[in-house]
Design brief:
Elements (H helix, E strand, L loop, with lengths): L1 E3 L2 E3 L2 H18 L6 H8 L3 H8 L8 H10 L4 H9 L40 H6 L7 H19 L2 E4 L5 E4 L3
Antiparallel strand pairs: 1-2, 3-4
InterPro entries: Cro/C1-type_HTH, Lambda_DNA-bd_dom_sf
Protein name: HTH cro/C1-type domain-containing protein
GO molecular function: DNA binding
Length: 175
Amino acid sequence: MEKRGDRTNYPDAAWERLGHLLVARRTQIDPSFRSREKFAAETGLNSRLIYDIERAARRGFRDTTLNAIANAYQVTPDAIRQALEDPSTTELPGSASKRANDTPQPSWRQPPDDLPDDVLWEGLPQPVMQVWHIEGLTVAERQLLAVTVGHFLDRRANPVRRSTAAGDDETWAAS
């Protein structure tokens, strides 16, 4: 192991081992996190950073970056370092219910007290959850805005194909 500035460099095999352990940990936290993009959206990590560390495409991360990674994967920074240093490490210890460093979940991830009974909170996209926490709006206004944002997200994810006057297909997506 070599220390350069605030970056710690380990052998390639150590980064590859950590990557495999992180992928296993990600799906252990929540099976829906098989999707790297969903995990990135939920944790706030950049999806490219997740790809780079899980695939050992990049090495020598800053300590602050490793701490953020540990937090996202709900393990301690020491568990990350142990996985890099100890070839016999086969699992990253952690609890799916407790985040590293006891970082609290953002308040918008909790359903508001006045959420209507017909709204299923679990599984809502992050932006829609955030809409429900906008202060100063009535429940009806937040519900209308949540539906609008949800529709926008769906259109962006599933663009509509239509024909132009010239007969060419073009893709329309909200942008």
